[in-house]
């Protein structure tokens, strides 16, 4: 069969990603006909957002209606869910996990179904926020032939950027994304806590200052690239300021000091590329940071 906007789509797993993709695809003119989930309530909730979509109590009833099925359950149950469905050779099944290979879909492939994955590289905090964030997002795609072409068109119709992944590159692709998200979430939370503990600003109040700053940094990177968008005292070669920062972070905790030092060290290579800081100062800052990281402050 040909895959196009009239292809009947079902969703299994009606959480943040399932609901967001189903609504976004329906708005883009795709035909979302069926939904099922672990609980019937979640399926009814998704179906209530989309005209023409019916909630089914069983996954089997839902997949019977569809030519293409998105599996948007927890990663850990994709394989068992796929195994429980009697696929046919005129169906396709696609999961949305960035961390999972296509192997979990092999039982569908053995029945003749086409298999693929479509991973939206975005955080799905809530359906409304995720719908706003999807345009411009990258969609990691695995699959072959006409399914690959279809998933590519689908990503473009969501105003996203398709990115083709070789299965051997997928762990690194996903680890990079998780590291980036983790750095932003984890370090922002640590800084907000420092503001609460040491500067007397309640941590969620602090976020009102810190989150706009994250957007500013992202804008600078987008506009000026690497190394143009890299900034900070180590770019300027300001050794004295870096030392003061390290000591003030050390007064909070060794972990805070090491977080400052390892982050600065990671950026130093790119700061040096910018050519603003003299090589001698880069070396001095590197030495200073390494000394603090090894807990032997100069
Ligand atoms: N969250 C993100 O930022 C993000 C980003 C990109 C990709 N992904 C991927 O997208 C997929 C879904 O993630 P999510 O964030 O949407 O998860 P989620 O909000 O926790 O939703 C998962 C859904 O799966 C359903 N489910 C769990 N076990 C099931 C089973 N045995 N049978 C049928 N349905 C089952 C749950 O059903 P009930 O509601 O009925 O209990 C829930 O609605 C995952 O593969 C994830 O790796 C997530």
3D structure, described in words:
With 298 residues, the chain is of the alpha/beta class. It has 2 domains: 8-165, Rossmann fold; 172-293. 56% of the residues lie in helices and 12% in strands. The chain contains 13 helices and 8 strands. It has an 8-stranded mixed β-sheet with strand order 3-2-1-4-5-6-7-8. Helix 2 (40-48) links the parallel strand 2 and strand 3 (54-55). Helix 8 (170-199) crosses helix 9 (203-228) and helix 12 (254-274) runs antiparallel to helix 13 (279-293). The radius of gyration is 24 Å and the shape is elongated. It starts with 7 loop residues before the first strand and ends in a 5-residue tail after the last helix. The model has no long low-confidence stretch (mean pLDDT 95). The structure holds NADP nicotinamide-adenine-dinucleotide phosphate. Residues 12-18, 37-39, 42, 72-75, 77, 81, 96-98, 119-120, 123-124 line the site of NADP nicotinamide-adenine-dinucleotide phosphate (NAP).
Q: Which terms would index this structure?
A:
alpha/beta, eight-stranded mixed β-sheet, binds NADP nicotinamide-adenine-dinucleotide phosphate
